[in-house]
UniProtKB/TrEMBL annotation:
Its cofactor is FMN. The lineage of its organism: Bacteria, Pseudomonadati, Pseudomonadota, Gammaproteobacteria, Oceanospirillales. Its EC number is 1.6.5.-, 1.7.1.17. GO terms for molecular function: electron transfer activity; FMN binding; oxidoreductase activity, acting on NAD(P)H as acceptor; oxidoreductase activity, acting on NAD(P)H, quinone or similar compound as acceptor. Residues 4-196 form the Flavodoxin-like fold domain. InterPro entries: Flavodoxin_fold, Flavoprotein-like_sf, FMN-dep_NADH:Q_OxRdtase_AzoR1, NADH:quinone_OxRdtase_FMN_depd. This is FMN dependent NADH:quinone oxidoreductase. Binds 1 FMN per subunit.
Length: 199
């Protein structure tokens, strides 16, 4: 059975515009594919450990060298990699926080991107080892960014490319805090894109 994996990353709970867009998209996407299932991983309600010395060693030392906490962290990484690799489609809510991505999402990628497991080093640079798939990045922004000032989507695309994902779709709702009219327009344009992709 095909599965859609949804990564919820907004700290804004039910007021989150990225979450609202993603949930509407998933409802439409799954509605058009009755045989599919969906899995939500809420990285805010159930945060992942951030990277520190213990976690660093957990992903790099031999198994016999790890303490119990490190074994649990490695097992969590294994689970997330299997979950991501199994999914046929991934949807990522991507609000812009202080010019970057939510720290919860960075913690996720620190567990997902593992040398020798989800990517490998080669003479020509890193090579992703996970199954390629469509990934939908649903970005929300209070203002409007020039392309050269975007440190949000390119950062996530680079992390996805690292593990082997090349089919990345950008959906951007911007100008959401400029005025009510700008917010309505930004959300409407983003939903128009998403609705077409959900067919």
């Amino acid at each position: 059975m095909s599965e859609l994996l949804y990564l919820a990353t907004s700290a804004n709970a039910e007021r989150s515009r990225s979450s609202l867009l993603c949930q509407r998209f998933i409802e439409r996407f799954i509605g058009n594919r009755p045989s599919w299932s969906s899995l939500t991983r809420d990285l805010v309600s159930n945060p992942l450990p951030h990277l520190g010395p213990q976690q660093w060693d957990a992903l790099r030392l031999d198994q016999y060298q790890l303490n119990n906490e490190q074994r649990e962290y490695r097992a969590l990484s294994d689970q997330l990699i299997r979950e991501f690799d199994k999914a046929s489609v991934v949807v990522i809510a991507l609000p812009l926080y202080n010019a970057g991505i939510p720290s919860q999402l960075k913690a996720y990628f620190d567990l997902l991107a593992r040398a020798g497991i989800s990517f490998e080093f080669t003479a020509d640079g890193p090579r992703g080892l996970l199954r390629d798939k469509d990934v939908y990045l649903v970005s929300t922004r209070g203002g409007i960014l020039a392309p050269e000032d975007d440190h949000q989507i390119p950062a996530v695309e680079q992390l996805l490319n690292l593990v082997g994902i090349t089919r990345v779709h950008r959906i951007i709702a911007e100008g959401l805090d400029l005025s009510p009219e700008s917010a309505d327009s930004g959300l409407a344009k983003a939903w128009q894109q998403l609705a077409a992709l959900a067919c």
